[in-house]
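Hi Q.,

Before the meeting this afternoon, I wanted you to have the 2'-deoxy-thymidine-beta-L-rhamnose prediction in hand. No need to reply - just skim if you have a minute. The sequence and ligand are here:
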Amino acid sequence: MRSVRWTLFCRVIDNLGDAGVCWRLAADLAGRGETVQLVIDDASPLHRIAPRGTPGVDVIAWSDALDFEGAEVVIEAFGCNPPERYVEQMAKTIPPPRWINLEYLSAEPHAQRSHALPSPQWQGPGRGLTKWFYYPGFTAATGGLLREPGLLRARAAFDRDAWLRAAHVVRGAHERVSVLFSYAQPGLGAWLSALGAEPTLLLVPQGPAQAEVQAALGPAMQSGALRAQLLPWLTQVDFDRLLWSSDLSVVRGEDSLVRALWAGAPFVWQLYPQHDGAHLRKLLAFLARWRADSPAAPPAGIDAWFQWWNGVGAAPPALPALEGWRDAVHGWRDHLAAQPDLGSRLLGFVASKR
Ligand code: TRH
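Predicted structure with the ligand bound:
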């Protein structure tokens, strides 16, 4: 089949997630034989999470003087507004490219309502074009979740101890592994004490949690039966494997959330905090979707645990048993894995708009 030429625009607003999602999508499409140009205004996150790039993806610096060079599909990530001159050139091209606005992942009802809606451009540089809303999501009525072909097979065949050894991590025979990829957490010390009730190796990827863990544990980097190890930058591929190695993870933005789901181990999601509380509405919608769709219900105590990680309540609640938690993650993961992934749905969507 002929490959489609895609141009994907990305602006880095904060953290790693904007670049992380765009890179994952670009690499996923390229892995399926597509040709992708990723136009990004700040490539520094990519130097950390994808330093060697991947065949089929060209990374290009964002410039207002960029020319439209005949891409068949133009994606702007998170309403980032491609340069005016570029959009003007898109509008003058016959046939014009298909233009898609890739939105943030959410389980809230608006994602289902707005997915795949057209936004005809009556004015501005793109006058005459139609921009399509594309909402990732957890149901068949949305754009789905990024899941590269073969990901779950690789997950099932994964050898955790071999990967940990190669990453210079030595796990004690009876230690469980926990991963902490979080924003600030004022109650972190209490959480570390709760985890330290059992032998635990806490692995902390790059981010603000590293300084917090160091401050809470001191130079010994231990609390009870917990010991912590800070990690260097990992490629996105290895970041997945880190989550596959974990018995209990804390993840933060939308991209690591999806990867924690595919990892299939108990996890907590700390959302990017917003002053108007929008993150809590988003969290509740996520928990409700999980409860509705997983054949094994999340155990009692899960909601309180997720809420505590998102600023609700002073002391951390009791840690729910990991077995039931794992079953509930597996149940939802299998339900989600039975649906087509985002890349497949996007290819179908684009083909239907030809
Ligand atoms: O970095 P994030 O906190 O991004 C967030 C979200 O995107 C959110 O929507 C946005 O509003 C906010 O930023 C400003 O978390 P997220 O989405 O999980 O992205 C992290 C990415 O970084 C993910 O692709 C994994 C990658 N990563 C690596 O590949 N290697 C590493 O060593 C680390 C620490 C991260």
